[in-house]
Amino acid sequence: MGELSSPRDRDRVGVVVPYDFALDREMWRWVPERVTLHVTRTPFVATPADAAQARLISDPAMVRRAARDVLTPGPAVVAYSCTSGSFVGGVAGEAALRDAVLAAGAPAAVTTAGSLVAACAELGVTRLAVATPYVDDLTGLLADFLAGSGVETVARHGLGLLGHIWTTSPEQVAAAVRAADHPDAQAVFVSCTNLPTYDAIAALERELGKPVLTANQVTMWAALRAAGHSAVGPGQTLVDGPSVPPVLRVVDAAAPGRTDPGPADLDPVVLATAAGPGPAPLLKVRVRLPDESGALARLTAAVAEVGGNILSLSVHGRDAGTVVDEMLVGGGVTADRLSRVIRRRLRGSGPDTVQVTPADPHELVDGPTRALDLVAAARGRDGLFDGLAALLHADEVGTGPVAAGMHVLELTAPAGPPVLAARDWAPFTVTERARGEAFLRAGAATPPLRATVLLPGGAELVAEPAAGEETAELDVLLRTCLAGEPAVDWTAADLAGLLAPVAGPALLLRTAAGDLVGVAALLGTDTGVPEPVVVLHPCLRGAGVGRWLRGRLGSGVAA
């Protein structure tokens, strides 16, 4: 038993095939580059390819011995890859084969027939058409197995072959699929791992408008999934995900009571997508790539493969060896399918390498224009933080602590403490750091704005942001306001904090002669929510000036 003690390797898959299996190269085509197949064959038997042969090559004791032959490399799963051998004994026989593989010491086991049932469940298929190379009685046993598994066979077509099945051409396979298809079938299954099908699946799915499942495909799909991998199969629904082709929706263009055809009736057909949730109209794709020749070409090839349209592309520096490419993709492709195809094209990248999420159409505006719009809309600290969050696609922006487990970007602010941006969906890049700090500088450099206030008696007051140097004037105003009250002491630092709090500069209200008669500021609190504070000269109380000043806090001074 010493040879079975090596660590299980998720990049290794064991496969037991019949003695006459001849399509090794085809089976490998569903396998990602990093994964290795370790294949062994059952012993030779001199019998035609009928039900008797299927029973001989699926004897559980023999399958158990064969499974042991592939365990030394330490595969994560062992597949029994034979359709007839795994359905000829019915549902119980398929379960016995999996048990035999597990009893041999495999950490996980799949069979072709069991994988077919799993694939039907994955796609929601309960009505199936089947195309086989078999004689009729063996095809009938496949239908019996499917019925026992909850899948109805609505149509079947067999080629009647008793040997040399691997010599069947892809064209003959395609013809058999067309002959087997039925309007009530939700999918078509091509039985037998000795039939070549890889190159025919995508074209047949486009032609028939439904999934086409094949023996080697479902076996590799299930085995690789058990090992934590995705199979490779461009345009194959089971592997690549369903596409959402356009459909025609007829629109009744006639108005109520209208009897005569007019110009509006000449174009009654409108192109629309299929009903249901459908794909997002616009997707944001964020991919970490090695900074090397050809990396971007593989990414754009993946988008082209699924029919996507790259509407914008930007490159973010990340570190010395990698970059992050961010693009907006249209074209009706689903996020799940696009993500899978990109991962395949990038050869099994890790889960944090490829991120595909719905995008805001406003992001189609070029980066510099968007940044300028956000700066123009920012007023006060809160407005600036909201704009920064939109620019960086951050979940939180502030100066306080952030939730644990989030990606955090610390930005140097022109004044005050560092600003922290946080999000949980992706790390920040050095390019985003540069954008964020430039945004903060631009927001801080917004020129002071002034406003004029006319009092009911005709007197004119001017409001403007504080420069932070008006501590002596503020001291006089406070002592005037508190005249007759118990003495209160304050320091120059207290006054400076009132003039220049973290939330943004205070607003000063002056007479036409320049005398300071009012101050309004947003001061920090223990709750983190700034509190408005207004100080007015006694002569202005009751004139509504305090409400006016509060309305300007947090949004700047507007003319």
UniProtKB/TrEMBL annotation:
Coiled coil: none annotated. SUPFAM superfamilies: ACT-like (SSF55021). It comes from the Bacteria. Gene3D superfamilies: 3.40.50.12500. This is Maleate cis-trans isomerase.
